[in-house]
């Protein structure tokens, strides 16, 4: 563009002079475009409210109210980001590993580099990896979906329920299962190539502990009637293993009907789903205790403005040359957004159910947890999922209102998560020396545009795709099964409609799971005491209990094969390549991660436009994404489930 557009300067020498030629496209412009895109590239979590109400509960929620909820949720995170910039962006210790992938990619694309004889420049390496990723994704994405999960144990034992429970990568514990689909590998935990090895090891240990020790023991000892249910499922069940009829316990006012609930009987969860909530409780308390013990001193010093000029890292010193974004900008956005949120929930209370005090309580939780969760994310590349505490609190205080529960969760948890995303982008701009005010405007505009695009797209899909999210009516291998929306809906039933007291409290049969709160608080304390007792054993400090205990909080909707494949690649990248092929790792590891993501993204869009919109699909044995039809079968005597043997 710079070569073909005229260099003429209009109104030269005057205040309003301008030129149509922007000059050569440089790395800072590229970074700013990326930050603009990042503000809306991730999933807009509040869309789940729309799908839960319209698709699953089949209740009324207007487009305008949905738009207000989505925009206020996204923008609320700016307030938390502004408050915690000095703690999570300026210190060198907050290094945000995921940003290194993007920094490496920018350098590969923009820096001129001489090709080493017999080798490749980083730009050439990126292009080759990009083309390979682009071409390859047509196999798991369309031609051969089974590559998502190769569960070979199921092939060896096609009639064994036990073998398929153990071996299924999508519906079981995933022993031996492996996937060759990058979209599946990186979808829940991020790129394994960007994960520090100590974080990968923590996740591997936590996954093995929960998936291969706690869950099998609970299942085969038949705790909570586990054998009458699938070992891994995000569905809700009766005591006899049948799907729970949620619509039967909702009255005409969209509130729980207690008498109907007592007639239907108590709600049961699959073993893994119940244990997932348990480790979610543990992760919550472990995060607070870990940050207090291992980072409390640094937080206190920063709170007292102890970071003087001579203690700043080089990036912070250089960024001081730019005009900073004033604190009051963030405070104004925060206050205006809270006011708009309260108005929305009060004026449209018949649709959203959440009272004004719920907004203030959600904001209090968000501001409390942003710092500890941000520290874990900035140092390990893993974000503890603390949505369970928001569901738990509002479920006890305001039971029986499912939409109020999910709105409270979105404002209390997702606004915090969105704030952490903004902080990560602030750090990227910090590394690449982007003027803070320019970056701030890019984030604001990107966030608002993304909210409009995401909602418009979701609304269009819900109106045009037949039987969307209905697993019983959709064909096998359909991309419209909505696993994340199912889990979100199930959570609204558990925590909002029925309420935690009737499931995890004194009126429920899962009350013992509350002991996980105590276990999570004790675990980091034991690590801290061990580190103090053996200060020369530096590896002890790398045991990060919030990451270890929170390893499986994404399961479900994440499945075992998402983790097994991620851990294997993380091991080869973070341990083998880093230790034994350091030169290759330093030049190509992060570039490879970016190339795999980019190739996948382009082919994914192409497949959808060419084939997905026409609903064209292949039907052959490779179209079955798992090949383990018995993995979800119960093993209790006398339980009858369609398609399963009766024991």
From TrEMBL:
Q: Where in the cell is it found?
A: Membrane
Molecular function terms, GO-annotated: oligopeptide transmembrane transporter activity
Q: Which keywords accompany this UniProt record?
A: Membrane, Peptide transport, Protein transport, Transmembrane, Transmembrane helix, Transport
Q: Topologically, how does it sit relative to the membrane?
A: Multi-pass membrane protein
**What's any GO biological process attached to this entry?**
protein transport
- Asked whether the UniProt record includes Transmembrane among its keywords, one would answer yes
Q: What is its main location?
A: membrane
Q: Which residues cross the membrane?
A: 31-57, 63-84, 125-143, 197-221, 267-293, 328-349, 356-376, 396-414, 440-462, 512-531, 563-581, 590-609
Statement: the UniProt record of this protein carries the keyword Transmembrane helix: yes
As for family, the record states: Belongs to the oligopeptide OPT transporter (TC 2.A.67.1) family.
What protein name applies here?
Answer: Oligopeptide transporter 7
């Amino acid at each position: 563009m710079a070569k073909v557009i005229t260099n003429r300067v209009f109104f030269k020498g005057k205040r309003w002079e301008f030129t149509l030629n922007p000059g050569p496209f440089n790395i800072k412009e590229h970074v700013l475009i990326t930050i603009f895109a990042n503000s809306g590239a991730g999933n807009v979590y509040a869309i789940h409210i729309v799908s839960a109400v319209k698709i699953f509960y089949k209740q009324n929620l207007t487009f305008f109210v949905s738009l207000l909820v989505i925009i206020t949720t996204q923008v609320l995170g700016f307030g938390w980001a502004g408050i915690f910039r000095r703690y999570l962006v300026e210190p060198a210790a907050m290094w945000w590993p995921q940003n290194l992938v993007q920094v490496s990619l920018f350098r590969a694309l923009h820096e001129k580099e001489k090709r080493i004889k017999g080798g490749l420049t980083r730009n050439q390496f990126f292009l080759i990896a990009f083309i390979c990723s682009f071409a390859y994704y047509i196999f798991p994405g369309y031609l051969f979906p089974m590559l998502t999960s190769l569960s070979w144990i199921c092939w060896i034992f096609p009639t064994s329920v036990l073998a398929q429970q153990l071996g299924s990568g999508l519906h079981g514990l995933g022993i031996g299962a492996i996937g060759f689909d990058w979209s599946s590998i990186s979808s829940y935990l991020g790129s394994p190539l960007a994960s520090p090895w100590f974080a990968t090891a923590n996740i591997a240990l936590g996954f093995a502990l929960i998936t291969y020790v706690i869950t099998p023991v609970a299942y085969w000892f038949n705790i909570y009637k586990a054998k009458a249910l699938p070992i891994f499922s995000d569905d809700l069940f009766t005591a006899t293993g049948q799907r729970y009829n949620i619509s039967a316990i909702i009255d005409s006012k969209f509130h729980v009907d207690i008498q109907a609930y007592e007639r239907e009987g108590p709600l049961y969860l699959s073993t893994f789903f119940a244990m997932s909530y348990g480790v979610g409780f543990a992760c919550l308390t472990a995060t607070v205790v870990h940050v207090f013990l291992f980072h409390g001193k640094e937080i206190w010093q920063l709170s007292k403005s102890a970071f003087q000029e001579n203690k700043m890292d080089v990036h912070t010193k250089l960024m001081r040359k730019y005009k900073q974004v004033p604190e009051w900008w963030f405070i104004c956005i925060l206050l205006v957004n809270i006011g708009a949120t309260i108005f929305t929930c009060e004026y449209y209370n018949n649709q959203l159910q959440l009272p004004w005090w719920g907004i203030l309580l959600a904001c209090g939780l968000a501001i409390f947890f942003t710092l500890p969760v941000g520290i874990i994310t900035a140092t390990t590349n893993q974000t503890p999922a603390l949505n369970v505490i928001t569901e738990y609190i509002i479920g006890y205080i305001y039971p029986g209102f499912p939409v109020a529960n999910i709105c409270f969760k979105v404002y209390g948890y997702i606004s915090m998560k969105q704030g952490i995303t903004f902080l990560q982008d602030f750090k990227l701009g910090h590394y690449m020396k982007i003027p803070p005010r320019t970056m701030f405007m890019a984030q604001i505009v990107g966030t608002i545009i993304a909210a409009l695009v995401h909602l418009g797209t979701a609304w269009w899909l819900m109106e045009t795709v037949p039987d969307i999210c209905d697993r019983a009516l959709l064909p096998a291998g359909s991309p419209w099964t909505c696993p994340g929306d199912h889990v979100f809906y199930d959570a609204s039933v558990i925590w909002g409609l029925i309420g935690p007291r009737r499931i995890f409290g004194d009126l429920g049969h899962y009350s013992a799971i509350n002991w996980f709160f105590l276990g999570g608080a004790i675990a980091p304390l034991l690590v801290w005491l061990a580190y103090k007792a053996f200060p020369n054993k530096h590896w002890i400090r790398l045991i990060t209990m919030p990451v270890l205990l929170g390893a499986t909080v994404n399961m479900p909707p994440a499945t075992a094969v998402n983790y097994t494949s991620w851990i294997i690649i993380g091991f080869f990248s973070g341990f083998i390549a880093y230790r034994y092929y350091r030169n290759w790792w330093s030049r190509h590891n992060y570039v490879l991660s970016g190339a795999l993501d980019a190739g996948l993204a382009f082919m994914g869009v192409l497949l959808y436009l060419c084939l997905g919109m026409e609903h064209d699909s292949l039907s052959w044995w490779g179209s079955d994404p798992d090949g383990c039809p018995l993995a979800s079968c119960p093993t209790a005597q006398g339980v009858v489930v369609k398609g399963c043997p009766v024991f």
